[in-house]
Design a protein that fits this description.
This protein is of the alpha/beta class and 253 residues long. The chain contains eight helices and seven strands, in the order βαβαβαβαβαβαααβ. It is globular.
């Protein structure tokens, strides 16, 4: 995939940073986006290809346009868009007000939709692809994940709808559903459980994994390798696919 250009959002840490590294190792030039400028630049500085960091907040209406313009000015093309930005809260449904719901959708769904719309003509020109990072909560409802599950479900439907258009326009659109991945957000949950139970973090991690009915937590690199495959020509017949990378947590069809 050398000489291709990828926009990767939420690339300053965790899954997004791992995706940027995995694509760069395949020879892809990365336009990395996130709100954390210093952390984002550190990720980009370690990439093996010519890549750039664009600190921006994709909640802002003009951010997607600016990101695409910078990518085109620097590299002259866009081949891959990975929508990874966005975190949604867990908690009691009755405790969430309208603002919490609006915030939940603002970045992960509307930010992704806006970036896809702006980047689409360039992806048509290169016969490129989009990979949306959603989450298994979009398939299986959970009382403590009402906002996140709803956002993920919307993103999965959006993936299918864009894939339908992509058949005509020559743009592949697929999605990946991670589950429990060992990121900073997951570590917060582990540390909270350890404090509540008075146990070591390692024991809390094992207990949380058992509660999810999986053998262990996944690694960001394991999500990134699937994204790199979906972005490559090896996945040229995959369109509208939703790939669960969850250690077997999703047991529904």
């Amino acid at each position: 995939m050398s000489a291709r250009v990828a926009l990767v959002t939420g690339a300053s840490r965790g899954i997004g940073a791992a995706i940027a590294r995995a694509l760069a190792e395949e020879g892809v030039h990365i336009v990395a986006a996130a709100r954390s400028a210093d952390a984002l630049q550190a990720v980009v500085d370690a990439l093996p290809t010519e890549s750039i960091a664009v600190a921006c907040d994709l909640v802002q209406p003009d951010a997607a346009t600016r990101l695409v313009e910078i990518a085109m000015q620097r590299f002259g093309r866009i081949d891959i868009v990975v929508n990874n930005a966005g975190a949604t809260p867990r908690g009691d449904f009755l405790a969430f007000d309208d603002a919490a719901w609006q915030d939940g959708f603002a970045l992960k769904f509307f930010g992704a939709a806006r970036l896809c719309r702006v980047a689409w003509p360039h992806l048509v020109a290169t016969q490129g692809c989009i990979v949306n990072i959603a989450g298994i909560g979009g398939r299986t409802g959970s009382a403590e994940f009402t906002i996140g599950g709803s956002v993920n479900a919307a993103l999965l439907n959006f993936t299918k709808a864009l894939a339908d258009r992509g058949v005509h326009d020559g743009v592949r659109v697929n999605a990946v559903n991670p589950s429990g991945i060992a990121t900073e957000r997951t570590q917060v949950r582990i540390d909270r459980l350890a404090a509540e139970r008075g146990i070591a973090p390692e024991a809390a991690a094992a207990e949380l994994a058992r509660a999810l009915r999986v053998a262990r937590f996944g690694r960001p690199e394991e999500i990134a390798s699937v994204v790199a495959f979906l972005a490559s020509d090896r996945a040229s017949y995959m369109q509208g696919a939703i790939v669960d990378v969850d250690g077997g947590q999703t047991r529904t069809l």
